[in-house]
Amino acid sequence: MNIHxxxxxTADRYAVEAMTREAFWRFWEGGLRICDEHLLVxxxxxxxxxxxELNTVAEIDGKIAGHIIFTKSRVEDxxxxxxxxxxxxxxxxxxxxxxxxxxxxxxxHTFDTAAGMGFRxxxxxxxxxxxxxxxxxxxxxxxxxxxxxxxxxxxxxxPLYDGALDxxxxxxxxxxxxxxxxxxxxxxxxxxxxAKEPHIPIPLxxxxxxLEHGAAEAVKRQGFSTFEEIRSRSEREIMSIEGVDEKxxxxxxxxxxxNGRDWGKQGG
Length: 268
Description:
The chain is of the alpha+beta class. It has 2 domains: 4-179, Aminopeptidase; 205-258. The protein is 27% helix and 20% strand. It has 8 helices and 9 strands. The chain has helices at 13-24, 37-44, 102-116, 183-189, 205-208, 213-220, 235-239, 246-258; strands spanning 4-7, 56-60, 63-76, 82-93, 121-125, 137-138, 144-145, 155-159, 170-173. The strands form 2 sheets. Strands 1, 2, 3, 4, 7 and 9 form a 6-stranded mixed sheet that branches. It has a 3-stranded antiparallel sheet with strand order 5-8-6, with no helix packed on it. Strand 2 and strand 3 (63-76) form a beta hairpin. It is globular and about 55 Å long.
């Protein structure tokens, strides 16, 4: 399979947004009616930190099959000194082409370009068991935290050259556009695309009824509102919950597979 990388053009924008909508339709945080990643892509192009030189599409036989978009971000230490970094997202692959290495190819291509532009590192909030396969490490290993000082496995860093993050630690900040989305605007924006039935998330009860009482109570205490929210946690984090054992983990993996979800170290 020949993957052709090129910069996104104005003519590509609707196709990229439609592809993003399709890829993320079933994956969103609790409390939302529909995904907002397609609106996010639309807004990121006008963001102050947008990096057009890295706004890349992957084509297969002339068809757009993937897309990655970057914005500038920063790490700020306790003294107020800042260090420039990059973040990307959404990273999108058209569902029919998923599992064929397109996402990793997009990362490698753009990371090489970013390093040549002088950027130091890429830091993201992402799938905590997928991105380590592409070379990401937990940001906590570098002393990098979320803005509130907390850390979790989904916050990950990728130094673009050896020693890029040596001696750097602090709180990580992304472009404000990521935090300014709302469902009213998303629903209005979504009218630009063909009508699509809203996704109904899998209730947490579907998992709880398969677990032994102690494990079910342990999972309930984590505050998940739907089963799908577990995808934001790594296997390591779920396993660290008191009352959760390997049997619980395997039940989660099995239920994910039954519902077409990738999760954990055995995910896609």
